[in-house]
């Protein structure tokens, strides 16, 4: 059993830190915000809750929700313009501090690349460090599905991305930070998982994470020790 002190030491020695986005880096669940914008909020948020609790295979839940929302390219663009996602307090400072230390920061999300890249730009994270699902549109901008070949479109996808990062960049110590079951199951191959409950508490994660925080100040504090 790894002690809390050992986990803190591993976090401070990380050469890469991967963050989930929805309800972790940002306060909202992007797919729920898109559903609200498109007028199908209630049905979709119930599906999200079941998916995050691990009750439904991720790709099935994603396909079901998108079939209800059917967002057009214009709706996605309007959502970002009119209701941009809100960064979780402390995350900008934490990511900035990690970057100052030479740590590579990645965003790994079961959400949508168009939204996640918008968030990444606010945090000085290059688009190449973003792994998320791609929405597909017809030439007239109408919804045409999503790219099912992306690793983030399936259960276990975040772990596949971390395995890929380890192989490509030879990272020795990768930390995964997130609020949900899909984040926790990415460790291993991640070396450390830190559960985050600052926006929403998923009981399964809170009960099973060896390190669980509700404020990014705790991680900033660990770096300053």
Structural features, described:
By secondary structure, the protein is an alpha/beta fold. The chain has 2 domains: 164 residues, HAD superfamily/HAD-like (Rossmann fold); 50 residues, DNA polymerase, domain 1 (Orthogonal Bundle), CATH 1.10.150. Helices cover 48% and strands 16% of the residues. It contains 12 helices and 8 strands. The strands form 2 sheets. A 6-stranded parallel beta sheet has the order 3-2-1-6-7-8, with helices on both faces. A hairpin with a 5-residue loop joins β4 and β5. α3 runs antiparallel to α4. The longest helix is centred in the last third of the chain and has 13 residues.
Give a short overview.
This protein has 225 residues and is an alpha/beta fold. 48% of the residues lie in helices and 16% in strands.
Percentage of residues assigned to helices: 40-55%
Looking at the chains present, what oligomeric state does this protein adopt? Answer: single chain
Tally the beta strands. Answer: 8
**Gross morphology:** globular
Number of helices: 12
**Overall structural domain count:** 2
Stated plainly, the CATH topology of the largest domain is called Rossmann fold
The sequence of SSEs as H and E is HEHHHHHHEHEEEHEHEHEH
Organism: Octodon degus
Active site: 20 (nucleophile), 22 (proton donor)
Protein name: Phosphoserine phosphatase
Family: Belongs to the HAD-like hydrolase superfamily. SerB family.
């Amino acid at each position: 059993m790894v002690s809390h002190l050992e986990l803190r030491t591993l976090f401070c020695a990380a050469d890469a830190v991967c963050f989930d986005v929805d309800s972790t880096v940002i306060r909202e669940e992007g797919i729920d915000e898109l559903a609200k914008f498109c007028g199908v909020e209630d049905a979709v948020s119930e599906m999200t809750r079941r998916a995050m609790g691990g009750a439904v295979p991720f790709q099935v839940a994603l396909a079901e929700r998108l079939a209800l929302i059917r967002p057009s390219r214009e709706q996605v663009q309007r959502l970002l313009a009119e209701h941009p996602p809100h960064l979780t307090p402390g995350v900008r400072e934490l990511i900035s501090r990690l970057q100052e230390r030479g740590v590579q920061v990645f965003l790994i999300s079961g959400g949508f690349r168009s939204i996640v890249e918008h968030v990444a730009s606010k945090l000085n994270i290059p688009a190449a460090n973003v792994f998320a699902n791609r929405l597909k549109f017809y030439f007239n901008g109408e919804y045409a599905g999503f790219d099912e070949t992306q690793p983030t479109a399936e259960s276990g996808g975040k772990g596949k991305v971390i395995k890929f990062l380890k192989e490509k960049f030879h990272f020795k110590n990768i930390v995964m930070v997130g609020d949900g079951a899909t984040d926790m199951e990415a460790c291993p191959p991640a070396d450390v998982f830190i559960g985050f409950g600052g926006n929403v508490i998923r009981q399964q994660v809170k009960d099973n994470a060896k390190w669980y925080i509700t404020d990014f100040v705790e991680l900033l504090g660990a770096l300053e020790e």
